[in-house]
Amino acid sequence: MKKLVLLLALMILVTFILTACGEEEVDVPAEDTEETQEVDVVPDDASDNEQLAETTEPEYNYIDDTDAHEGTTPDAPDAFAFIFRDVLIEMNQDVSQVISALGDPDGEFEAPSCAFDGIDRIFAYPGIQIYTYPLDDSDFIHTVAFFDDSIRTTEGGIRLGANIQAVIDVYGDDYEYEVGMYTFTRGRTVLEFLTDDGIVIGISYRYLIEI
Amino acid sequence: MKRIFTNPDTRLRVIKITTAIVVFVLIFFSLQRLLMPKYASFALEGGLIREYYNSTMDQDLILIGDCEVYANFSTIALWEEFGITSFIRGSPQQLVWKSYYLLEDTLRHANQMPQVVVFNVMAMQYGEPLYEPYNRLTLDGMRMSSTKIRAIQTSRTEDEDWLSYIFPFFRFKDNWRYLSSEDFRYFFRDPQVSINGFMIRSDVVPVSFIPQPMPRVDFQFSDMAYYYLERMVQLTNEHDIELVLIKAPNLFPYWFSEWDEQIVAFAEKHDLLYINFLNYQDEIGLDWYIHSFNAGLHLNVFGAELMSRYFGRILQEKFDLPDRRSEPDVAAMWDAMAEQYHNLIRIQQEEIASTGRISTFLIDTNP
C-alpha cells in the first residue's frame, strides 16, 4: 500500500514539475490580475529588424512636402512620443494624465478588450483618436492615430497628405515596409505611415504590446 | 499471458499498477475540472460553446459567428414569433475557421440536419489566428473529437501548445491560487449562460459617439478566410442545407463597403442569400439610443427581438422553415426555455430599476 501511495505521489509530483517547466503563466483575460501586469514588449533591439525581405517597396515620383518642418523631439530618444496642444503624449502612459491636461475629449467609446480584462477605450480630440488598454483599474495609451491634416507628427511635422519621401527625409530609411505601411521603430514604440500611391493616408503612434 | 494472471504476485502487481493509473487519471481530470475557468461570474461568453451539447433538441436553424450573432439574435423571439427552432453557435472573436469547425461539430452532433445555417461575415476581415484568450473561449468549450483537434491546429497562434487544448490542466494549472467557491459550486455542472446560444442583456447604453475607422489600403479578404468560407459552402451543400450570409447591423467595428462588395460577389458566385442588415436598420426598427447595451457594439435583448422578428420572417418566407409550435413535445421544451428567458429579463429590469445596473446574467440561478 505504501508503494502505491508513493507511486501516486510521484506521478502527481512529476506532472507538476513537468508543467511548471512549461509555458509562461497566463490566464484567461478576466481572471488575470498579477500576470497581466507584466506587459511584455518587444525587445529593445526591435529597431534593428531588417526590412521585410519578401515585400517589395513600390517606386514613386516624389514631390517635396513643403509644409514639413523640424519639430521638437521629446526627451525620450528611445521612444516615439507626440506633442498635441502642448501636451506630451507618450505611449503606454496613463491616459488620465493626458486627459486632465487636454480637457474632456469630444467623444469617448468603450469596447470589451480584445486581449485584456476590462474595456478598451477610444478618446477623440479634434484630428486625433487616442486608444487605450486597461490594466489595474487604469487605462494606458497604446495608439494615437491622426484623422485630419491639421495634425502633424512632432518630429518633422509630417501630416496626412504628405509625400512618403518627406517621411523618409525626416525619419530615415531604417523602416519596415508592408502593403503600403512604413513602420519606424524606436524601442517599444513605432510610428506608422500608411500610404496609398506614395501619399500618406494614415499616421499612428503605437506602443508594442505582447499579449 | 495466462501465467501473469495465475501467478499471485504478478496478479497483485498488475492490480496495483492498474489501480494507480486509474487513481492518477481520476485525480488528474478532477484537478483539471477544478482549475478550469467556470465562466460563471466573468467572461460568461466562455460558456457558450459547451451549451450546445446539453441541448436534446434538433434545430431547424443554426446561426454561426462571433458576438454579432450571440448578442443580436433572440432564439426565443424566433420561437415565439414563428415557431422556428434555432441554436446559436457563437463565441467572441470567432474567426472563420473556428466557425467552420463549429459547423462541422454541430452537424456531427445533430440527429436531424438543420434546414438553414446562417453565417455572420464580420470575421472575414481576419486572415490569421489572433489571440489565445479568444481561442480558449471557443475551443475549450468544444467536445473532444477529430473536428476539435483540427480546429485547434488551425486556430492556435505560434506560441500556443496544442497539447494544452487537449489537456487544459496544463494551461490552467496556476489557477489554484485563484480558486473560489464558484469553482466548487460548478464542479459537477456548468452554469447556464444562454438560451440556446443567445446571451440576454436588458440594459441600455446608448450610442453617443462612433469612432472613425483606422484608414487602410488593403481590403482584400485573406485566402485563409475565403478557404474556410468555401468549405462552409461545400459542407452545407453536402448535407443539402441552405447557407445564408449576413452582416449584423452593428455600428462598430466598422464594416467597409469594399468588404461588402466581396461578400456580395461571393454570394452571387455561390448562389447564396446575403443580407447586410446595416442597410435595413429603419425597417427593422432599430433605435441605437435604446437598443444597445454597449453603445452600438451589440444589441440588447429588445433590439435582438426586433432583429429576430425581421430576419425570422425572411427565413420563413424564403426557406419555408416549419412552425413547430403545434408539436407538443417541442413546444413544451421551448415554452419552458421561454419562461426562463422572460424571467431573466424581468429580474434584470428590476435590478436596473433599483440599482441602475444588472448583476444577474446566469439563466439557471434565478429565483
Helix content of chain B: 40-55%
User: What's the CATH topology name of the domain at 81-207 in chain A?
Assistant: Pathogenesis-related Protein p14a
The strands making up the biggest β-sheet of chain A line up spatially as 3-4-5-6-10-9-8-7
What is the CATH C-level name of the domain at 81-207 in chain A?
Alpha Beta
- Rg measurement of chain A, Å: 22 Å
Total number of domains of chain B: 1
Biggest pleated sheet of chain B = 5 strands, parallel
Mean pLDDT of chain B: 93
User: What oligomeric state do the depicted chains represent?
Assistant: heterodimer
**Count of strand segments of chain B:** 5
Poorly predicted segments of chain B: none
* Number of helical elements of chain B: 15
- Principal-axes geometry of chain B comes out as globular
First and last CA, distance of chain A: 47 Å
- CATH fold naming of chain B: Rossmann fold
Q: Label the overall shape of chain A.
A: globular
The N- to C-terminal Cα distance of chain B equals 60 Å
Structural class of chain B: alpha/beta
Model description:
The complex is a heterodimer of chains A (211) and B (367). Chain A is built from four helices and ten strands; from the N terminus they run ααββαββββαββββ. Chain A is α+β, with helices and mostly antiparallel strands and 211 residues long. Chain A has a domain at 81-207: Pathogenesis-related Protein p14a. In chain A, a hairpin with a 2-residue loop joins strand 5 and strand 6 (138-146). The longest helix of chain A is centred in the N-terminal third of the chain and has 19 residues, at 2-20. The radius of gyration of chain A is 22 Å and the shape is globular. Chain B has 367 residues and is an alpha/beta fold. Chain B has one domain: SGNH hydrolase (Rossmann fold), CATH 3.40.50.1110. Chain B is built from 15 helices and five strands. Chain B has helices at 2-6, 8-35, 67-70, 75-82, 96-109, 132-139, 146-155, 163-166, 169-172, 181-185, 223-238, 257-269, 281-284, 301-319, 328-355; strands at residues 61-65, 86-90, 116-120, 242-247, 273-276. Chain B has a five-stranded parallel β-sheet with strand order 2-1-3-4-5, with helices on both faces. In chain B, helix 12 (257-269) links the parallel strand 4 and strand 5 (273-276). In chain B, helix 4 (75-82) crosses helix 14 (301-319). The longest helix of chain B has 28 residues, at 8-35. Chain B is globular and about 80 Å long. Classes of the chains: A alpha+beta (211), B alpha/beta (367). The A-B interface holds A 3-4, 7-8, 11-12, 15-16, 19-20, 22-23, 25-31, 106-112, 114-115, 117, 122, 124, 129, 145, 147, 179-180, 194-196, 201-202, 204, 211 and B 16, 19-20, 23-24, 27-28, 37, 42-43, 46, 92-93, 130-134, 136-137, 159, 161, 164, 169-175, 178, 208-212, 214-218, 252, 294-295, 297.
